[in-house]
Known about the structure:
The protein has helices at 6-26, 30-55, 60-90. It is mostly helical.
Amino acid sequence: MSAIGLNHFLILATTLFGLGIFIISTRKNVIAILMGIELVLNSANINFVAFSRYSNGNIDGHIFSIFVIILAAAETVVGMAIVLMLFRRYKHVNATDLDNLKQ
């Protein structure tokens, strides 16, 4: 049985990042786009923790990951407020109508 190394974490993070970018670029639903952004941020968290663990064993990567999680929570709150305003006005949540909210 082989041990899980840094390469495994990097492959997982790359896969999540690619999937997140794919979702962001192909979806028109704002909620799906927010989920894609969360996948990209989670791939960054995996990289932070993996490099922190395999470089010198300190907790710097964990601290950065906590900040990214806090940022993701704030982004979700603001994003969901925009989604609710979009739904109230247009009765759907397509990203193509976001530029009309500034009026």
